[in-house]
Request: fold
Amino acid sequence: MKQWVVVFIALIMATGSQAAPVYIELAPEFVVNYGDNGRLKYMKAQVTIRAVDDEAALEVNYHSDYLRHELIMLFSRQLPSIINSPEGKEAMLKEATKAVQRIMRNETGRPMIDQVLFTNFVAP
Reply:
């Protein structure tokens, strides 16, 4: 998957197109245990990152393992009340965006991403 994104971005850069956001799907889906002192539960989520431009997309791809690790740790710390409410999911996405931006800023000097998005989310 990473190779296709790199090829796609290289083609876009070769055509001289204007800087536009690039959407990067973090595959495979995230499957994470979460919960408090009670019974552990799980969530499954497909996550997409919106990079600010083609260069940022290449950097996000390069650091994708680090980003996945940070997101797994973030998701696994959540309480059921957060995971099961629309407001909680929004708050979790905002926290994920800040975490990913922090990593990219530390690694590259720029935040590089606008937003973290759920394209699929299941928490039975």
In short: The mean pLDDT is 89.
